[in-house]
# Entry
Amino acid sequence: MNGFASAFAMIASWLTIGAMGVSLLVLLIRYIAEPFAPGLAFGPLIRRLIDGRPLLPDPIEDSSTANRNLRRRLRKKEWALHNQLQLIAWVVCTALMSRLIIFTAALVGCGLNGNLLAFFTDFKNHWIRWDAIGYLSIADYGYTMDNQAYMVLMPFYPLLTKLFSFFFLGNTALAATVLSNLALIGSGWALHMLVQEKQGQLAARRAVYLLMFCPLSVFFSVPYAESLFLFLTLLSILLARRQKFIAAVFVGMMAAFTRLAGILTIIPVMLEVWKYEHSIHLWPRHKSRCITRLVLYSLMVLLISLGFFGYMLVNYMAMGDPLAFIRVQAESWNQTFGSLGNTIRYSIESMFRNDSAVWMTGVWLPQSALILLAVALLLVISIYVYPADGLYAWCYLTMTLAPTWLLTGPRMILCMYALYPMLSRASRKTWVYGSLLALSLLLMIVCSYMYAVVGNIL
# Structure
């Protein structure tokens, strides 16, 4: 069995590397071409490049005055107050429905285990586990030498939790829970707005349902930074697509101050800047002015990385070393930076070799399966997905799944904003979407039970 596990893991590792390589090539070509030919499909794009013809947008993206005015009127209607209130009400109802299912799964599980009374009297024992304990410790006491293992958790979520606890008489656990759920609602709204712009309203609703009923949706409602990170990322990109670049950069900084992967928000925001600069047609008339604007706007987008430098400053103030989090990762969590191929290899090997059923079903099996599925989805959808979403997904998977002893791969994948537009695009057929949503809902019930009752989902 060990020999089979090693061989299978090695094959999966090389297939993952190959799929990611092909995806990167396709996505880079489409990302670079997007400002010059917005919305141009991959096939026509390649044919035009081979033939040496100029890149021109598809008719639906025509920049004529009539089409610009039509898009402006549609966008104004989309942002009308009554339409936004209806959308927010629908998102809130969807979120409440999914939270009710999570709560019921945990309640029934406790009842079956004979712990029904404890479920109502001991909130923290069921809902505050692992990283949640760390975030609340930082919110209550800050970064100290006693809790230096939590230095790997970035500061914006516990900072907001501390500020928010003022409205809950200093109860940080309750404040963090409310904050996470509000951020989830905000994520549903922003995701709907993003997907609707590129794929239409039906696709947007599919994306929101897949977010709310994703297998590890429980982590969006407990004291974890997942939902806040997702909301800030989506909001930054939404602002960039509305050409509110200063606001997009500021929100992107907050995303980079919430999770390290927030720095990747630069990728989709930068593309919107390049598209905007190309759309105003300065190059034929004022080449020097066009170059100056492009450089200045691009440098402004790079300011998103200040969120990460703010985290380094916190490291220096707390531990005397701006890179203390790297040392803590290695010493306390046995993690250094590796590669995606290595992660899938040891995840599969551990799944076969681990004697603990808890670790196999709660960590290694879901991690191996979701990594392989995410890479396969990215490969298949790379010729269709909006280039900024696709390239962000590629960089996100490469960065977040690279640690040498990763235990939270599924959680990392499910807070990648680009996953939901990609799934919505891939599930346009009713039977595909229905099957995907049913499977996701079933897994959400199982994972909620395992988190709140059994305690073996990381």
